[in-house]
Each structure stands twice: as structure tokens, then as C-alpha cells.
Design a protein that fits this description.
Length: 266
């Protein structure tokens, strides 16, 4: 596996792609509105009244009975005590956990490309001659606009009190893109494990295909580069993967999401 930076050359970039995501979930779990479990063998962040973030992650079933561990978590999901979304990536142990989950009634519902870029190679793709103004979110009004866009684009019920909490964390910066005075795009920059992670990148449907996502992403990554970060990471859909290649991102791994099917839950 390619290495992107001497500073992180002892581990593959896969580690940092997934670790940044895990760090975001772990930080989210500190909010009082979430019922979470952070352990060596399995972790999750869970909120019954909202949709994001809700995820089981960082499974390490080494030297454990995998079926027993999975069956235990299945029962918690059925009882509404654990989220019905399980992230599996290159750090998951065993590496074939996805196959084992499918044999135990889970379905692969979503797949993302784990991507990374050395920020000094960031390409200038603030294209399409638009006038998107990218601002850092620094007040409650802007944060509410950010929340409304993410909720609309992803169809999620988002906890605004959680957003207030996460926005105040030192390693987090929210961004809002405005076009002709209207807020139209969003992004979260999460700085952890030595890399700059992009999350919750979204653009309102009627403003897509104008390069807004590239512009807000590039702005955040340049900000990270200016304060010493040298690697950017993200998880992208198949469409997003093609878009981010325009900035110079490369795919290094896959991140899968599994859910217990309704038939198996009953």
C-alpha cells in the first residue's frame, strides 16, 4: 500500500482514512444525548431520537467467537439498544467481518471509497466561474443554516444541540458555502490522527453540478495545510469518488455499511 507522508509512513494510509472517521464517532459519543459504548472490541455511538451519527464501528474480535459477539449485538439492535448501522473498513478485525455479518442476517447497504491526498498536490479546481463564498461557521444562525442543508440533502434528523457541542471542539471546523447570498453547501473539517478529514459535504439539489462541493472542500483543505496538516482524507460515494479525483484524491480502500434486515430483526 502506498504511503503518503514520511510522518505517517509506519502505517498505511488506510489506517488514517478509517481512524479519522472513528475519531469523529468517538468524539461524538461524548455528547450527553447519545447512548454510546467505546470499548477495545467494539464501539458505537447511538441516539434514539436522531439519525446522525448512529453507527457501530471499530470492531476487533481477535481471539473471540465472532458469531457469539455478533449475535449479542443483534439482540441489542432488536431491543433498540444499539444502532442498526455497522461500519466495516480496513482496520476491522477480522478483515472478512463483512462476510460474517452477511451470514448472520446483515445486508451490505452502502459502500464508500476511502480516499486520500497529499495536500501539497491539491489541484486548483475552483472552476465553473461561480461566485461561491465559503465561510467558517462561527455563530448560531449560520449553524442552523448548516443543519438545515445537511438535513435536506441527506434526509436526516440532526440533533442541533449535538452540532453546538461538536462545533466547539478544538479539532472541528464547520464550513458554509453561500451563492448569491443563499447558503447552499456544507462541510465539516475534522483534524485528528495527524490528518484532515472531510465530512458531511453536501450541496442543495438545485445548486449541484456547479463545482460548489470542490470549492468548499478545497477551501477547507487549504486551511488545514496552512496550519501544518499534509494529508487529507474522506469517504466518498461512487459519484463523489469521481468528483474528488478532480482535486487529486486517490482511492486506497473501501468502507462498507451493514444493517440488520427487517426480516432478521423480527
Amino acid at each position: 500500500m502506498n504511503k503518503i507522508l514520511n510522518k505517517i509512513s509506519l502505517k498505511s494510509i488506510n489506517y488514517y482514512i478509517e481512524k479519522n472517521l472513528d475519531d469523529f464517532y468517538t468524539k461524538s459519543s461524548e455528547h450527553s444525548n447519545f447512548t454510546s459504548r467505546i470499548e477495545d472490541k467494539i464501539s458505537w455511538v447511538f441516539a434514539k431520537s436522531v439519525d446522525w451519527p448512529n453507527c457501530i464501528f471499530r470492531a476487533n474480535f481477535k481471539n473471540l467467537n465472532k458469531d457469539n459477539e455478533i449475535n449479542y449485538i443483534k439482540e441489542l439492535i432488536r431491543k433498540g439498544k444499539a444502532p442498526n448501522s455497522w461500519t466495516v473498513g480496513p482496520l476491522t478485525i477480522p478483515i472478512n467481518l463483512g462476510n460474517i455479518l452477511e451470514k448472520n442476517g446483515f445486508s451490505n447497504v452502502y459502500q464508500q471509497a476511502g480516499m486520500a491526498i497529499e495536500l501539497k498536490n491539491l489541484k486548483d479546481k475552483t472552476i465553473d466561474r461561480h461566485d461561491l463564498i465559503v465561510e467558517k461557521v462561527d455563530n448560531e444562525t449560520s449553524l442552523k443554516e448548516w443543519c438545515e442543508i445537511v438535513s435536506l440533502v441527506f434526509g436526516l434528523n440532526v440533533d442541533f444541540d449535538f452540532l453546538r457541542f461538536i462545533c466547539l471542539q478544538e479539532q472541528v471546523q464547520f464550513y458554509l458555502g453561500k451563492f448569491e447570498g443563499k447558503s447552499v453547501s456544507t462541510l465539516v473539517l475534522y483534524l485528528s490522527s495527524g490528518v484532515a478529514g472531510l465530512h458531511a459535504v453536501s450541496t442543495l439539489l438545485e445548486y449541484r453540478n456547479k463545482g460548489f462541493g470542490l470549492t468548499i472542500s478545497r477551501t477547507a483543505l487549504i486551511d488545514a495545510f496552512k496550519i501544518g496538516y499534509r494529508v487529507g482524507v474522506l469517504q466518498a460515494s461512487s459519484l463523489g469518488e469521481r468528483v474528488y479525483r478532480k482535486l487529486g484524491f486517490q482511492k486506497y480502500c473501501d468502507i462498507f455499511s451493514y444493517a440488520l434486515t427487517e426480516e432478521t430483526k423480527s
